[in-house]
Amino acid sequence: MKSIGLEQPKLKLFINIVILGVSLWGVAQKDFTKEESSLFQTILIEIVSPIQGSIVSLRDRGGSFFRNYVLLVGVSRENADLKDKVEELESEIFNLQEIARENKRLKDLLRFGEEVNYKKVLAQVVGWDSSSQFRVLRINKGKNDGITLRSPVVTAKGLVGQIYRVTPNYADVLTILDPNNRVDAIVDRTRSHGILEGFSDFKCLMKYVTRTEQVRLSDVVITAGLGNIYPKGIKVGTISKIERESYGITQIIEVSPSVDFQRIEELIVLVGNKENGDEKRVGVNQ
Amino acid sequence: MKNKNLIIASTITIAMLIFLNILSSTVFPILGFHEFRLPFNILIILFLGFKLETPFTAILILGVQLFQAAFTIEGWAYGTFAGVLLCIVVGFVRDLLNFSTKFSTVIVTQIFQTLWFSVTAVLIYIRTLNIDYIIHKFQNFIPESIIISLLSPYVFGFLDRIWKIKQTGSKVRV
User: Fold this and answer.
1) Is A74 on the interface with B (CB under 8 A)?
2) Mind giving me the DSSP string for A64-111?
3) Residue A138: which CATH number?
4) pTM for this predicted structure
């Protein structure tokens, strides 16, 4: 087959300039709070995400196998039969305990915000963002389940984030730990208003709270219901650090999220708005 | 390289990118590595820039980034801009680059990763004006980039075979 060509510096220069221009346009257009998924991305995500989901579902089985079988290599032959029976029973107990834990988690999730007029879509986490800069989760529910861009996402413990990108069967959740996600929040005790921004894998910053507000450590922070994304009253976390500089008119408050993002497995997407949903208050989960 | 081989090599490279991204976005977090995730796309793009002497490198980079965008909300644009810019730089210093030993490969990869970080950090700062975000990004960049650099001789060796590049370090021409 014929080669395309050898020395083509002008063609290379032209292509480089065009691609640089297009990528700069892409940088300018980029919105880190929501994204309409292109057809190419939708197809790719729909193909790849089931693989991610399968790997996640293998996790528990793999853990059980490792605990129950691999570590028992070397047990004397004499006790093998008894050990096998014990293993079987332990494995059964483990599975039952796992089911019981899952049941409890799901029940807690389904009890969340019973009084709120949202449709609740239960979803499982199947992946995470491949870049450590972004705190994004991929879930196994999408447009076909009624999920739309910017739908709020919660667990029984509190706020997780909002839907960033959605395909027919999968969606990406921009968590409150991501610096691109900003949540209107209030301190439950003092009703002090501020903006919550993601900061690291374990904490958020609550900004623009005036210095005169007497907030304290361990005060609960909840959503304010402004911004038309999150319903009012969802628990976000508790105050873990307060910094008051000798100058300035605001204080910087660190908030530890109530959701453990390292161990999150299932979550709820609130969809299908609601007649007075934004005005309604969700019970603060302690 | 013939067009057919170019397509085959590109396809295998993209398949490798997808596999590595699944590792990074699913397997590593399951194993408990939540804070650090390896940006394998940078490694592949640097390989394309270092070893391929073709006018279409920028298009290949764009292709890699379009696939990468399915795994991260960073999207395709930032990486494409940084990648193409770095490939232009590589074009000027190509004769100085040495991949004959693992050590030199690690050092060159680390230098260009640092340049990559600088370019994307400037772009992000221009967009967000948030220096804290850049500092936090840099804290993650240090360990991640070192691991990527240490992996580079092996990944480049594998890609050399896919792109049929001789071990002497000669470049592929298209």
Assistant:
1) no
2) HHHHHTGGGTT--GGGHHHHHHHHHHHHHHHHHHHHHHHHHHHHHHHH
3) 2.40.10.350
4) 0.79
